[in-house]
Specification:
By secondary structure, the chain is of the alpha+beta class. The chain is built from 7 helices and 18 strands. It starts with 31 loop residues before the first helix and ends with a strand.
Length: 322
């Protein structure tokens, strides 16, 4: 089990926006209320603490209306909209005992099964949940691992019905900020390239960085899957063989940061994500702990992404940490 002792690093989570964007990039939504809550959690609790979502008024279901099946499955946390469309086309979704058809809608009371398993539906009038998880090194962002390594999902709050959807991934040996939500639709928007959400990392390397390497990393490095470039690159201290840097980029390719440094002849010895879009890694959130956004912050996030507010008349409450 990972050690939950706080590690000291010679940097603080960045507070400014990156100075460089890719060509054609559009401004990202920055929910100020969400960022403020994420930066100042008030309560700490042990990892994996169970929750009883049935006792929270914001998760009570209201009467729903028919919705497109692939969208409904996505916001119920089964997967992305595209994945759901593929499952429906493959005949692996069943509605009330009959094979679902592409473009079909579903209503409250319908029994929907995916791969033979009954799905607990969440219609649009149900506010999704969003949590920030401080992932430690040594956990995989997957439910199915042939090597049976520890998974982040065992550390998240439990819920009856539905499931957590990861917003992107972090490598097994990478720590830091990881987002989860119960809405596949929201997760898809948080990951979609058109929103250009910045990712910021603290990077520790072994040895010296060549004089021209920084400019090469800012101009763009040719990787196997295309050009990759940092939007910002700042020194963050360190001594001896270990040097810290703070970098940002607008993509989330597999092992992108590590591969970029390797391309200029440098090995990354530690990597931690400190920001994802409007979300900062809370300084008091220890490794293995989660912070759940409050209702008002979730509503703000949904509005910033142009999604319909499912519960505009419900009273808001403060965020909770678990």
């Amino acid at each position: 089990m990972p050690n939950n002792r706080t590690r000291k690093t010679p940097f603080r989570a960045p507070t400014g926006a990156p100075t460089r964007r890719p060509r054609g990039a559009t401004p990202e939504p920055v929910p100020s209320a969400v960022e403020e809550v994420a930066a100042e959690p008030k309560v700490r609790a042990p990892r994996g603490a169970p929750t009883d979502s049935s006792k929270r008024g914001r998760h009570k279901e209201l009467p729903g209306k028919p919705e497109r099946l692939h969208k409904l499955l996505a916001q119920s946390g089964v997967g992305s909209r595209r994945e759901m469309e593929e499952l429906i086309a493959a005949g692996r979704v069943n509605v009330n005992g009959e094979t679902a058809q592409t473009g079909q809608s579903a209503s409250p009371g319908d029994r929907i099964k995916v791969n033979g398993k009954l799905v607990h539906l969440k219609f649009s009038n149900r506010l999704p949940r969003v949590i920030i998880y401080h992932k430690p090194e040594g956990e995989i962002v997957s439910r199915d691992d042939p090597d049976h390594r520890p998974t982040v999902f065992t550390s998240l709050p439990k819920m009856s019905g539905g499931r957590w959807v990861a917003v992107g991934r972090l490598d097994f040996n990478t720590s830091g900020l990881l987002l989860f939500t119960t809405s596949g639709d929201l997760a898809n928007r948080l990951m979609h390239p058109r929103y250009n959400l910045v990712r910021e990392y603290a990077v520790r390397i072994l040895g010296e960085l060549p004089d021209d390497a920084k400019q090469r990393l800012l101009d763009g490095i040719e990787l196997d899957d295309g050009i990759a470039q940092f939007a910002t690159f700042q020194e963050a201290g360190g001594e001896g063989a270990n040097h810290w840097y703070r970098v940002s980029l607008f993509e989330g390719k597999n092992r992108e940061v590590r591969r970029m440094f390797e391309a200029v002849g440098v090995v990354v010895s530690r990597l931690m994500r400190v920001r994802y879009g409007p979300f900062m890694l809370p300084p008091n959130l220890k490794r293995g702990q989660v912070l759940e956004l409050g209702e008002s912050d979730v509503k703000k996030l949904i509005a910033d992404f142009g999604m319909e507010n499912p519960a505009p008349d419900r009273p808001s409450h403060k965020s909770r940490e678990r």
